[in-house]
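ok so for the tutorial part 2 we go from a plain amino acid sequence to predicted C-alpha cells. step 1 is just haveing the sequence, like this:
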Amino acid sequence: MALPSPLNRYLLLMAQEHLEFRLPEIKSLLSLFGGQFINSQETYGKSPFWILSIPSEDIARNLMKRTVCAKSIFELWGHGKSPEELYSSLKKYPVEKMVPFLHSDSTYKIKIHTFNKTLTQEEKVKRIDALEFLPFEGKVNLKKPQHVFSVLEDYGLDPNCIPENPHNIYFGRWIADGQRELIESYSVKKRHFIGNTSMDAGLSFIMANHGKVKENDIVFDPFVGTGGLLVASAHFGAYVYGTDIDYNTVHGLGKASRKNQKWRGPDENIRANLRQYGLEKYYLDVLVSDASKPSWRKGTYFDAIITDPPYGIRESTRRTGSQKEIPKGIEKCPESHVPVSLSYHLSDMFFDLLNFAAETLVLGGRLVYWLPVYTPEYTDEMVPWHPCLKLISNCEQKLSSHTSRRLITMEKVKKFENRDQYSHLLSDQSLPYQGHNSFREKYFSGVTKRIAKEEKPSQE
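step 2 — the prediction. this is what the C-alpha cells look like for a chain of 460 residues:
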C-alpha cells in the first residue's frame, strides 16, 4: 500500500493501556468528525506511535478533544529509522508548510520524547542542535511558546533489552493533547455514589467514544447500576436515561459499597453523581424496570445504548416473573401480585438486549456492551448476532487466567421489522453462546482450582 501524501500525515502518541480498545476508539472518533481512517502502517500492534492520514487539522483537534487512548497528536514533518533518514525526510518536507510556524515573529521550543529509554540533558541538547538546518527564524521561548516541536524516538517495547539506537525517529509540530486527565478527574474513588461494580472511568469514556456519543444525543443504559456510563456520556453533551431492576441501587438505599461506611447517605444517588461534575442538566431519569420486559412503545428513541450487563459474579442476573408456570397467552399479572425475582440466563439477556437495541436505536445508532466469556471455550462465533445490527469491533479485557469480557460495539444498519425479532434464533449463530449460561459456575470453578493449586505447595 502506498503511503499517503506527507501533507496530511499525523503522528499519534498512544497510551500504553487497554491496547485492544485503541484502534476502535480512533476509528469511531474519526468517523464521528467526518474523517476516514487511512492506515499508513502495516500494523499498529502494541506500538505507541501511529502514523495516520487525517483530512484536516480541525478533525485532528476534534479527535483529541475526545480520545482517552491517545496522549498527543503531531503534524508529522519527517521520520526515519536513523538520524540521517530523519534529516533527509525533513529536507523533503515542503518549506511552504513550515514557514507559517517558523517566521521571525514567532516563538517556539523543541522537546525530546523517548519511549523506553531515558536520555541525559546533554544528549537532548545534541539532538536539538542537529536540527539547525531547519529554517527557524523565530525566538526560543521555553515557558509559553506559540509553537512546540517534538523529536520522538522509539526504542521498542522490551524494557529488558533497550537498543543503543532507536527503531524509529519522528519529528512533528504538536497539535493537541488527548483527554487522559479525565481518567483521574472522574475517578470512581472520588465519585459521590458507587456500587460493587461501578465502571472504571477510563473504560466508561472509551465506551462512550466507541458509541460515537455526541452533543444532544439521547443515550440509554438498561442496566444502569450507579450510572457511571451515564456520567461519561453526559460529559460529551448527551442526555442520559437508564433503568435497573434493583430498587435499592436506583434509589441509593441500603448498605454502602465504600470501606468503613455502613449505609448510604440520603444524597447518594445517580443524579448526585451527575451534579458532582456539573452535568445534572443532562439527566433525564432513571427507572426501576426489568430489562427483559421493556415498557416502551414501538419506535426509535436512542442514539446510543451503552451498558454493562450483570454477569452473575458480583451482581446477580435477575428478571421479574412468577415461580408458577404462566400460560403463554397470559402476559399480565393481577394488580395485587408482586412478581418474584427469577434467574436470567446470560444468552437470553444478550438476545433481549440486541432485540431491544434493534427496535429502539435510530439508524446508524450504536450498541456498546460487555460480553463475559470463558476463555478456553471462546470463539468469535459466540458473539450474539442480529440482522439489524452490524458488528463494528470486539475487544478483549482479561478478568483472570480463564475468563475475560469483550467490549462489543454494533451499529444499526437496517430498520427493525417484526420478523427480525426471532430471525437470529433460526441461525446457527444463536447456539454457541448458550454454553456461557454457566459462566458464573465456570468462573468460580477456576477460582477454586487456582486457590487449591496455590495452597498445595504450602501444605507440602
